[in-house]
Write a structure and sequence with these properties.
Bound molecules: adenosine-5'-triphosphate, magnesium ion
Pfam families (chain A): ABC_tran (PF00005)
Structural class of chain B: alpha+beta
CATH topology of one domain in chain A: Rossmann fold
CATH class of one domain in chain A: Alpha Beta
Shape of chain B: elongated
Protein name (chain A): ABC transporter ATP-binding protein
Radius of gyration of chain B: 29 Å
GO molecular function (chain A): ATP binding; ATP hydrolysis activity; transmembrane transporter activity
InterPro entries (chain A): AAA+_ATPase (IPR003593), ABC_transporter-like_ATP-bd (IPR003439), ABC_transporter-like_CS (IPR017871), ABC_transpr_LolD-like (IPR015854), MacB-like_ATP-bd (IPR017911), P-loop_NTPase (IPR027417)
Strand content of chain A: 25-35%
Radius of gyration of chain A: 17 Å
Structural class of chain A: alpha/beta
Number of strands of chain B: 12
Oligomer: heterodimer
Distance between the termini of chain B: 24 Å
Helix content of chain B: 40-55%
Strand order of the largest sheet of chain A: 6-7-8-3-9-10
Number of helices of chain B: 12
Order of helices and strands of chain A: EEEHEEHEHHHEHEEE
Helix content of chain A: 25-40%
CATH superfamily of one domain in chain A: P-loop containing nucleotide triphosphate hydrolases
Largest interface: A-B, 37 and 25 residues
Order of helices and strands of chain B: HHEEHEEEHEEEEHHEEHEHHHHH
Strand order of the largest sheet of chain B: 3-4-9-5-7-6
Number of domains of chain B: 2
Number of helices of chain A: 6
Keywords (chain A): ATP-binding, Nucleotide-binding, Transport
Largest sheet of chain A: 6 strands, mixed
């Protein structure tokens, strides 16, 4: 139950030259812990997340999820893996406009071939966990920004993921709501036992993290607080 | 179809607009099909209704194609055909289009001359010299019933029966004897070589050698279906109507393709998110195609019902309109099929959506 990146290098073609977005990155995220990834803009944080999410295959290095090496997996296998093992909280809530809050969660089960009815109890439980039990029937345009982001988080947990990847979840929220969202992610990480990676540029969130990985020019500069006093 | 259904309901306005277009196109195609079939029937039903499977024409002069008008066959030709192996019956049939009058009413009619007692006429036993059997169209047009009289080429003829609704070249048919027909048909009268008719209606069994018989009799034989193109305006009339219908089919496929192209492009963001959440491309394609088929089916159902209703309202009027499964259900099925193809081409771009785009801040 963990996420391990070993010696990951990712190079984007950049005009005539090449741009090294990730340079020999190694990162281990144990279950029930939250690793905050910080770094200046363009340092490679999102690239790191995309590689961990199996959305990009790195040039070299390995990404293991649940001790299973994902290198060499087919596209279909990676899709299945994402559906079963990875939860993603997008920077924008990315909710589907035609679905109610409850259905945003049910659709995850439907994608896995389960019936929406069978997924109902879990969807309700998760909506309750993010404090939106009363908003289950609302569509995205009827929800506030903070509520949308909480649906986004609940959706990421719908498939009971091993790995929870969160990309700047607070960028669209004011400080107080951002704080509440990060607290929620920390709480759910402990509760659900996920290996959580949180990309953020808001340093006030760092106190909640078990570890902090600072990315600079595609390299993990230093791990801090590896054993954060708790 | 979890997302597909909900999109349909959520984007009601957009889908209703597209649905309306489908309804209107289907209605138009349905009306055109009914009209094509109705006009076609007016043109050919007397021939298609003949109890025959092949028609023998006199060999046309060089450069001419077969034509029901202005052609004659002689008695010796049909006698020869009667003797051919595999021909169960060879019946002479005289055809001419002229006017008939009854009192102060007058109508264009097609006079079909047959041998008295011939099976070609619906009530063949009553087609004696000097008497006629009217199709319902002719009876209505002339305001006649069985027992009345009408004037044809200066001769008074007795109506012995009204039977069938045969029609030829847009005029209702009057059945009579060959001799009476001959008197009314300008081409037949002067022809040498004994009694004549226009064509020979053949009933054949499988083993007939039409080539050899044609050579011996100096005829050219075609199947009944192929002989329809020998009816004056049929080919051009039917051809242009079918062309219009074909264009409408193409237009519907293109419009639906265009709509779903725009719709799919708009949905790229949603599709990227679903893919990032682990949706397989196949399931997304299924969902989107299912949505298109639902829209198409609903639209064509309404449009087809409309066309059928118009057809029912026109029944019994002078408008030639035919509502049959082929004129109504078939075009609807074609629209659904072509529309689904158009939609499938548009939806195909779901395949190329990169789930990575769900990650960034700008969607
Ligand atoms: N698809 C791509 N093709 C080419 N270059 C890319 C691509 N995606 C990112 N890059 C480049 O890779 C580098 C790392 O980008 P990345 O998005 O991972 O940074 P980031 O740390 O998330 O930045 P930000 O804080 O602005 O989100 C940047 O220089 C970026 O321009
Ligand atoms: Mg980023």
């Amino acid at each position: 139950m963990s996420l391990n990146l070993t010696g990951v290098t990712l190079i984007y073609p950049d005009g005539d030259s090449r741009l090294t977005a990730l340079d020999d990155v190694t990162l281990d995220v144990p279950p029930s812990t939250l690793t905050a990834v910080v770094g200046p803009s363009g340092s490679g944080k999102s690239s790191l997340l995309a590689v961990a999410a199996t959305l990009i295959t790195p040039g070299t290095g390995t990404v293991s999820i649940d001790a299973t090496d994902t290198t060499g997996m087919s596209r279909r296998e990676l899709t299945d893996l994402r559906r079963r093992k990875i939860g993603m909280v997008f920077q924008q809530p990315n909710l589907l406009p035609s679905l109610t809050a409850l259905e945003q969660l049910q659709v995850v089960a439907v994608l896995d071939g389960r019936s929406p009815a069978a997924a109902l109890p879990r969807a309700r439980e998760l909506l309750d966990a993010v404090g939106l039990a009363g908003e289950a029937g609302r569509r995205p345009h009827q929800l506030s920004g903070g509520q949308r982001q909480r649906v986004n988080i609940a959706r990421a947990l719908m498939n009971d993921p091993t790995v929870l990847l969160v990309d700047e979840p607070t960028s669209a929220l004011d400080h107080e709501r951002g704080r509440a969202v990060v607290d929620l992610i920390v709480r759910l990480t402990r509760l659900r036992g996920t290996a959580t990676v949180l990309v953020t540029h808001d340093t006030t969130h760092l106190a909640a993290a078990d570890r902090i990985a600072e990315v600079r020019d595609g390299r993990i500069g230093h791990h801090t607080g590896i054993e954060r006093a708790s | 179809m979890f997302v597909g259904w909900r999109d349909l309901r959520f984007a009601k306005g957009r889908f209703a607009l597209m649905g309306t277009v489908i309804v209107l196109i289907t209605l138009l195609v349905g009306l055109l099909s009914g009209l094509t079939a109705g006009l076609g029937r007016q043109n050919v039903s007397a021939i298609t209704g003949l109890p025959a499977d092949r028609i023998a024409f006199d060999v046309p002069s060089a450069g001419q194609s077969l034509s029901y008008s202005g052609t004659t066959v002689t008695e010796s030709q049909w006698r020869r055909w009667s003797a051919v192996d595999g021909v169960t019956s060879a019946e002479p049939l005289g055809i001419t289009t002229t006017r008939a009058t009854s009192g102060d009413r007058s109508a264009g009619v097609s006079v079909f001359g047959v041998r008295p007692g011939s099976a070609l006429a619906p009530d063949g036993a009553r087609t004696r010299d000097g008497s006629v059997v009217l199709s319902t169209g002719a009876a209505d047009g002339l305001g006649l019933h069985s027992g009345g009289t009408l004037t044809l080429a200066g001769r008074k003829l007795h109506v012995t029966a009204v039977a069938g609704d045969a029609s030829f070249s847009h005029t209702p048919v009057i059945w009579t004897s060959l001799d009476t027909w001959r008197a009314a048909a300008p081409t037949a009268a002067a022809a040498p070589g004994g009694p004549t008719a226009s064509v020979i209606a053949l009933r054949t069994t499988g083993g007939v050698d039409t080539k050899a018989a044609d050579l011996a009799a100096g005829t050219r034989t075609v199947t009944k279906g192929d002989s329809l193109s020998a009816i004056g305006s049929y080919t051009s009339e039917n051809g242009s109507l079918q062309l219009m219908r074909g264009f409408l089919f193409a237009i519907s496929a293109l419009v639906i393709g265009a709509f779903f192209t725009v719709w799919t492009i708009q949905r790229r963001g949603d599709v990227a998110v679903l893919k990032a959440l682990g949706a397989s491309t196949a399931s997304l394609l299924r969902d989107a195609l299912g949505q298109a088929v639902v829209l198409l089916t609903a639209g064509t159902l309404i449009g087809t019902a409309g066309a059928a209703a118009v057809g029912a309202a026109l029944a019994g009027t002078a408008v030639p309109f035919l509502v049959t499964p082929t004129t109504v259900v078939l075009p609807a099925a074609v629209i659904i099929l072509l529309g689904a193809c158009g939609a499938a081409l548009a939806i195909r771009r779901i395949t190329s959506v990169d789930p990575l785009t769900a990650l960034g801040s700008a969607r």
